[in-house]
Specification:
Rossmann fold; alpha/beta; globular; binds NADP nicotinamide-adenine-dinucleotide phosphate; 37% helix; seven-stranded parallel beta sheet; two-stranded parallel sheet
């Protein structure tokens, strides 16, 4: 448990930031850097969504630089900022997905360099989607292969921007996070599919689904803080990834829905066009293992999908 720390979360108004901020707000000073006013955040998410002790500070390029002083003496800086990838990859959207991540990282880096007391630890988001479509073997920090499709390119540039920031007194960690399961995020559309009878396998169903429970993400952040040797790249993914078919089956069983219509790849492509998203989000085989976390002694609270979905559905 973190206590008495100053924690700043950039892009913390979203799904992961909300879980983290609320988890630590009672015992720590928590600040969220957002492009929105507190009122706008409350209007979008509802007043009770964030613990009232959390402070919201407006930041970003083109804004007054007052927010920078709020970073002084931070114990943990977490950067989650980035435009959602749940959209069709038009040229404009691709640019925004890429630029929002790279420039938020650079803006934070420039700010941190101006501080007298820089953060002790800086965790920058990345994604486990940086590894290739893997159907033959799992990918980890050492043996994983990185290819060149758009989402991989985004992660590479995002990590490069972070790696280029040289800080003598700040420990830096890249969090290559798998699909995160919690109350919100991607579980919401998956639950809707199941509810409306469409919760069968997607595509062949054999593509791997690497996931991590949001409680583990928060606990891993705490573990990073406490383990002063931890630095560099970590995969935040549960030790037992499953196939898409097993994931959908488990979700149906937790929701007590007997049958789910399978969605072949062609139907998903057609559907994705209508709802302006990308089939890659469900068809890419993400087979990722948390080798470093396990070798260095982190014990996952949610190791298998049955327990994880049981806690959330
Ligand atoms: N959720 C997952 O399963 C998952 C898995 C792997 C990696 N990740 C990565 O982890 C990060 C957090 O995930 P999340 O699910 O919490 O995302 P989220 O709910 O979409 O929240 C991201 C936050 O980024 C800020 N943002 C949006 N567009 C921006 C822009 N153009 N420029 C700067 N900031 C912008 C927003 O904050 P304001 O509007 O308040 O500024 C938003 O609340 C993301 O970068 C995501 O790619 C997520």
């Amino acid at each position: 448990m973190l206590k008495g720390l100053k924690i700043v979360i950039a892009g913390g108004t979203g799904f992961m930031g909300n879980a983290m901020a609320n988890a630590w707000a009672a015992d720590n000073e928590v600040i969220i850097l957002t492009r929105q006013s507190r009122k706008a955040v409350n209007n979008s998410y509802g007043k009770a969504y964030f613990n009232s002790s959390i402070r919201f500070v407006v930041w970003g390029e083109g804004k007054s630089a007052n927010w920078i002083q709020d970073l002084e003496g931070t114990d943990i800086l977490i950067n989650l900022a980035g435009r959602s990838v749940n959209c069709s990859y038009t040229k404009a959207n691709r640019e925004e997905i890429m630029n929002s991540r790279v420039s938020a990282t650079k803006v934070l880096g420039n700010a941190v360099k101006k501080l007298q007391r820089p953060p002790a630890l800086w965790l920058n988001a990345s994604s486990a989607t940086i590894y290739r479509h893997a159907t033959d073997r799992p990918q980890d920090e050492e043996m994983g292969e990185i290819q060149n499709d758009f989402s991989v390119q985004v992660c590479k540039e995002w990590e490069k921007a972070f790696n280029e920031i040289e800080l003598a007194n700040t420990r830096k960690i890249i969090m290559r996070t798998a699909i995160t399961l919690g109350n919100g995020g991607v579980l919401v559309p998956y639950k809707n599919l199941v509810k409306y009878g469409l919760g069968g396998r997607q595509g062949s169903g054999r593509q791997m689904f690497s996931w991590v429970h949001i409680d583990d993400v928060c606990r891993i952040v705490e573990w990073f803080y406490e383990n002063k040797e931890a630095s560099g790249v970590y995969n935040l993914s549960a030790p037992h990834p499953v196939s898409n078919e097993v994931f959908m089956q488990t979700l149906r069983s937790k929701m007590h829905v007997g049958y789910g219509l399978p969605s072949p790849a062609w139907l998903l492509k057609l559907g994705a066009m209508f709802i302006a998203t990308e089939t890659e989000l469900v068809l890419k085989s993400r087979w990722v293992l948390p080798t470093r976390l396990q070798q260095e002694g982190y014990v996952f609270k949610y190791q298998d999908i049955d327990a994880a979905l049981g806690s959330l559905v």
